[in-house]
Design goal:
Length: 173
């Protein structure tokens, strides 16, 4: 998976169709989209670059706000690992080179179907990254999306995660 998509409960099939259409429009005619066992969560594997997809969908919404009806959030995933603190920590330490020395960061964890300790993950990661932390205004967000025994990891700018509602709301301001 290189995308996690959230949607309102019980609208997963509609969301899957909508996402297929969007990805096809952008050039991936055979994305692998799965409705997970977790209500309101889908995963997708596409040949397209996930952060670019988010940017293109954002532009699409700004042009035609009604074009996205079912997707709530679209989260780009750079790496998928087993849900184990050591594995998560190991991969984030490799990926942390994406955070330059002068950038502040924040760690965000979303857990679904897992009772792994968020505090322990955060402590381990924070101990190896020497940059300053900023919860309010981070330059980069270390995103850890735990879906049962699989964990998606990304190091992104805040704007790289797409919240459809916030994007639509910005249009009316």
């Amino acid at each position: 998976m290189n995308l996690i998509i959230t949607c309102p409960r019980h609208l997963e099939p509609e969301t899957e169709e909508e996402l297929k259409d969007i990805l096809e429009k952008f050039g991936d005619s055979e994305p692998e989209i799965k409705i997970t066992s977790m209500s309101g969560i889908l995963t997708a594997q596409t040949i397209l670059e996930p952060i670019q997809i988010v940017r293109k969908i954002k532009e699409m919404i700004l042009d035609e706000p009604w074009s996205v009806r079912y997707c709530s959030r679209i989260i780009p995933i750079q790496k998928v690992v087993e849900t184990q603190i050591e594995k998560i920590n190991e991969h984030i330490s490799e990926m942390s080179k994406q955070i330059s020395e002068d950038e502040k960061y924040r760690i965000s964890i979303e857990k679904r179907n897992s009772n792994i300790s968020s505090k322990e993950i955060i402590t381990k990661i924070a101990n190896q990254i020497k940059n300053k932390v900023s919860l309010e205004y981070p330059d980069k967000v270390i995103l850890i999306e735990i879906l049962g025994n699989k964990t998606g990891i990304s190091i992104l700018k805040k704007s790289d995660v797409l919240s459809i509602e916030k994007t639509k709301r910005s249009l009316s301001e």
